[in-house]
Design goal:
This protein has 133 residues and is α+β, with helices and mostly antiparallel strands. The protein folds into two domains: 40 residues, no CATH class; 77 residues, no CATH class. The chain is 22% helix and 29% strand. The chain has a five-stranded antiparallel beta sheet. The chain starts with 11 loop residues before the first strand and ends in an 8-residue tail after the last helix.
Length: 133
């Protein structure tokens, strides 16, 4: 189940409809379903390697913990001289998380789901994250 207060229109979530679970882009209709007590049918999408790559992340092939763990990087197109990036990690236990950095200083807590990445990108850049699901 997902906390509806974390969602915006356009966020991707998994929606359980009868026996199928499909990724969907949130619309007003999804918020209506959640308000009617059907939040149990919506789930967050974890930040797995295939999702990260569909969001424009590139894998760091020189990551010092390879092959046990993996690192992915998304450079954010912002104005100025600062280096703004989001790093995502898949650790040896196959857990995944990401965090944003400015000039290699971590500026966010770890986050774990696609809708959180979308929301952070929207706040930092002012536009939607391009995702090809």
């Amino acid at each position: 189940m997902i906390d509806a207060s974390e969602l915006r229109i356009g966020n991707y979530v998994l929606h359980k409809a009868s026996v199928r679970i499909l990724p969907v882009k949130c619309t007003l209709q999804h918020f209506e379903l959640i308000s009617k007590g059907l939040a149990k049918d919506f789930f967050p999408i974890p930040l797995k390697p295939e999702i990260l790559q569909k969001c424009g992340f590139s894998e760091n092939k020189k990551y010092h913990l390879l092959p046990d763990a993996r690192e992915f990087i998304l450079t954010l197109p912002v104005m100025g001289n600062n280096k703004n990036e989001i790093y995502a990690y898949i650790n040896a236990g196959k857990e995944s998380y990401a965090r944003a950095t400015v000039n290699d200083i971590v500026i966010t807590n770890n986050f774990y789901y696609l809708h959180q990445l979308q929301n952070l990108h929207h706040v930092l850049i002012g536009s939607e994250l391009d995702i090809i699901l």
